[in-house]
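Hi L.,

You mentioned the student needs an example of a multi-chain input paired with its predicted structure. This one should do, with 642 residues in total across all chains.
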Amino acid sequence: MHKSKKETTHLPLFILGGVVLYFLSGMVDELRVYQGASIAVYVIAISSIILLTGYSGQVSLGHGALMAVGAYAAAVLRIEFNVPIILCFVAAVLAAAIGGALLGAAAARLSGPYLAGTTLALAVGLPSLANQFTVLGGEQGLLFDVGFPPLSLGEEFTQYKWFFWIAALAALISMWSVRNILNSAYGRAWRAGRGNEVAAQLAGINTARSKVLAFTISAGIAGLAGALLAMTIGTVSPSAFPLTLSFSLLTGAVLSGITTLGGVIIGAVVLVAIPEIADVVAHRLGSSESVTTNLPGLIVSGLLILTVLFVPNGPVEQHRARKAKHEAVNKSSKKKKHQKQ
Amino acid sequence: MQLLNTLLIGITAGSIYALMAIAFVLVWRSTRVVNFAQAGMALLSTYFGYEAVSRIGSFWVALPVAMIGGALFAALVELVLMRLLVKHASSGPIAGVAPIIATLGLLGVIRSVISMIWGGQDLRIVAPISNNGFTINGSTLVFSPLKLLILVVVAILLILLTILFQKTNLGLALRASAHAPEIARLSGVRVDAVRTLGWALAGAAGAVAGLFQTVNGNGNFSPDSIEFSLLLVSGFIAAVIGGLDSLLGAVIGGLFLGIAISFVLMYVSSGLFFIAPFVILLLVLFIRPQGIIGVKAGRRA
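Structure written out for the whole complex:
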């Protein structure tokens, strides 16, 4: 890790990415645009897991529930107070961040399996709370309507494209922020705490506070992803945030390489693409309906296990490690030759 | 009378949680892994039991079939998945979370495969005896012959398990490998084989929990039934309350959790069914983080 160069925020890169996405969205059909929106949502959600698990070393199986918090906050404000849509998204971030701070305060005392189990209990329990309050709409859920695209964009501009634009813009902004947070003193503190908590404390890092902060930021990002997910579905209901959502996010993060933000798009694309691939495979094989509907789940879970076993730190990190090892071997062999002479 | 009812329901549910918690503890003691696939294994064993019931027609055959099936499957998981995991993913930044992720993946695989084989619809196992409450002095209790039976069977299993652990050489090997694997290995204990045995015992305990959870409810079960997510969460919480390392603690934790949930549902609100375990877990972790049966090491696994 040689970072002697001056740290840059890479703003132009992200703006360029936005321009590319803009032209791309005009060239593909409606279904692809919708899938693009889903990918953008997953990119945001997975980056929240990478920040939390990959950098600060805390596991959360409850991010589905935090996404639900964000989605419900946005939907309630939209329905009850007719708040402008941009403020709804801001509220989603804040609401989930508050939830995350509370959970993080409990989490800072826990680690490993204890934390995983606690957040798992949250993921099972929280969505069912929606049935307790009529303002949350019970099992039916709430409608969440971001409205039609503005007329200034032209008559041709479809609803799905509007979803994609909102989601992609949010993804670019949050990726840019996450990247810069991870490269800041906070990110270094998280990594230090993950590597060796006692050493980090000796170096003057308040590891407990740093963990709670990681949980708060990660939850806020998850809340944004939740509100965006609700936007693409059109409703917010307990069934939109099942336990499997939390598991999928973790799968996406592991596939992306849990310690590298750069791979996040891999996980998101895989999560969106797998149901389609599974569909094609099942049709080729001419298998029954029960196989077809469960093949995506099997592939996702199978990939999760295989990745952990054989590429535990993700494809990007694996490649980097192999390269570094290769160089090290080269260097040491040169050294030996030198010594012989 | 309502108080007694609530207590008895809580104890019955708690005894099932206790079995699940024992499964968690056995796996934790043998490989230092919290097995989040435990509920999936219990579900699979319930399907084994279902097959036995529909072929032979007796619940009393189904119970041992499910236990043996569950034990074999768990042993297989330990032999294949866990050993590969130790070999490949025991270093690097992911080492701490790798077992959690792997067992979650296994949970997903089990669920999908079950849905492929048996379909996603509800199947049904009929309880061997009536679940209609006893009648005392003209008033009907919720406590039924079935619930009594569950309590008796769980008690017998616990006694057998205690004898195994305290009175046999195998039990000594199990305890030795859990506490000091290196020293156990030096004194000739085949630690790897003992680990596999620990998983197998956990699989059997989970199988009984799965079958009883099903018949104690309405008898229906499916790959997606929330009952099994609840069994996973409750079993884990019960194990944590008990300290995650102690079998006695797991039993106490299970009963405590069962009774606590039962009282919350009766006296606070029945809508809190899913959130109550989470709140109880948080309270326990804040008030007594080392569990009821205290272990010195604390919660930093």
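You could point out the following to them. Chain B has eleven helices and four strands. Confidence is low (pLDDT under 50) at residues 296-301 of chain B.

Best wishes,
N.
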